[in-house]
Amino acid sequence: MKDTRTTQAALAEAIGVSQSAVSAWLSGTKTPSVENLWALADHFATTMDELAGRTD
């Protein structure tokens, strides 16, 4: 999010979730569903593996 200067509110709107959901993911109190991970990966043009830190 820092690299793309994306706010929590803008990301939430872009992927169709609440800002509080994004906030909870970032604070570690909740984890995104598989569907939300797909949406995040698509939004940031990356893979779910990369989002999870699984890179070669």
Explained architecture:
By secondary structure, the chain is mostly helical. The chain has helices at about 10-15, 20-25, 35-45, 50. The model has no long low-confidence stretch (mean pLDDT about 95).
Topology of this structure?
Elements: H1 8-15, H2 19-27, H3 34-43, H4 48-51
Helix pairs in contact: 1-2
Describe the structure concisely for a colleague.
With 56 residues, the chain is mostly helical. 55% of the residues lie in helices and 0% in strands.
The global form is: globular
Helix/strand order, N-terminal first? HHHH
Fraction of helical residues: 55-70%
By helix and strand content, what is the structural category?
mainly alpha
Strands, total number: 0
Helix segment tally: 4
Mean pLDDT: 93
What kind of sheet is the major sheet? Answer: none
Give keywords.
56 residues; mainly alpha; 4 helices; 55% helix; globular
